[in-house]
């Protein structure tokens, strides 16, 4: 098993990406610290892989933008599971936000959820990993860290901030044996609604703008996260991996691979 007894902190265990990553890493023997936003215990993350396998999980509900909550939570989780080995930051809040009409409160909400949380978690987990001179940090970000959405400039700004955080962290934490990498997640099913825009045609017939006309899935994401968390990626540090099936290479509609 590639992650036997490794402890993984996942910042958004409730999301589709979170569930897919948990299932893939659990199959390789990982244990988990799972942050959930679920209000009731009946909604909390409890993947089938954790019910039937040997993986252990500590399920928490903390404000990722407050170091006063994240730091003691990680310290307590380490006492229960052992030292944290891996941070997967997959927090991903998208809300319509146009430059000319966006309220300051909404801008701060999106920036906090996606970018500030990445800083707080990186700092807290990074210190614990640095003490042992080993670890992995994986940011599940977006192609919109460099490509406008046309629907939420605040989302793009937040992901751009995470991209530069990842580079800075790779440089500094890399000196302590910690690999830091970022995944620029491309389109999956439903993204045409998430990024619906009145000014951008990027997501019009978007499934056909992937050269092979096959969208990626969160299970595909889980496979890539596993690689970056494994010893096989020991020399991968500071990488921005575009994970979009070639989506951003597309620019001519009449060249799309559509069904006959």
Q: How would you describe this protein?
A:
It is a single chain. The chain has 260 residues and is α/β, with parallel strands linked by helices. It has a single domain (7-255), classed as 3-Layer(aba) Sandwich (Rossmann fold). It is 37% helix and 14% strand. The protein has 7 helices and 7 strands; from the N terminus they run βαβαβαβαβαβααβ. The chain has helices spanning 16-26, 48-52, 67-81, 104-130, 153-173, 191-194, 218-229; strands at 7-10, 31-35, 57-60, 86-89, 135-142, 178-185, 240-243. Strands 3-2-1-4-5-6-7 form a 7-stranded parallel sheet, with helices on both faces. The radius of gyration is 18 Å and the shape is globular. The model is unreliable at 39-43 (pLDDT under 50).
Number of helices: 7
CATH superfamily: NAD(P)-binding Rossmann-like Domain
The run of helices and strands is EHEHEHEHEHEHHE
Average pLDDT, to the nearest integer?
93
* CATH architecture heading: 3-Layer(aba) Sandwich
Walk across the major sheet and give the strand order: 3-2-1-4-5-6-7
């Amino acid at each position: 098993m590639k992650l036997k007894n490794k402890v993984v902190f996942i910042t958004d265990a409730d999301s589709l990406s979170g569930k897919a990553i948990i299932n893939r890493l659990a199959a390789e023997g990982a244990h988990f610290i799972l942050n959930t936003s679920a209000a009731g215990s009946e909604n909390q993350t409890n993947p089938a892989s954790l019910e039937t396998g040997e993986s252990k999980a500590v399920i928490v509900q903390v404000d990722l933008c407050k170091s006063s909550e994240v730091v003691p939570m990680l310290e307590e989780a380490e006492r229960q599971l052992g030292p944290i080995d891996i941070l997967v930051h997959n927090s991903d809040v998208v809300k319509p936000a146009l430059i000319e009409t966006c309220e300051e409160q909404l801008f701060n909400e999106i920036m906090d959820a996606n970018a500030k949380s990445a800083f707080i978690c990186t700092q807290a987990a990074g210190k614990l990993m640095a003490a042992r001179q080993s670890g992995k940090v994986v940011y599940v970000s977006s192609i919109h860290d460099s490509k406008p959405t046309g629907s939420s400039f605040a989302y793009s700004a937040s992901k751009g901030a995470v991209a530069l955080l990842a580079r800075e962290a790779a440089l500094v934490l890399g000196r302590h044996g910690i690999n830091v990498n970022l995944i620029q997640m491309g389109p999956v099913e439903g993204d045409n609604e998430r990024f619906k825009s009145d000014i951008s045609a990027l997501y019009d017939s978007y499934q056909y703008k992937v050269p092979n006309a096959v969208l990626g899935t969160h299970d595909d994401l889980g496979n890539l996260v596993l690689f970056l968390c494994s010893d096989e990626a020991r020399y991968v540090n500071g990488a921005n991996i575009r994970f979009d099936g070639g989506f951003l290479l597309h620019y001519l509609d009449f060249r799309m691979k559509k069904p006959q």
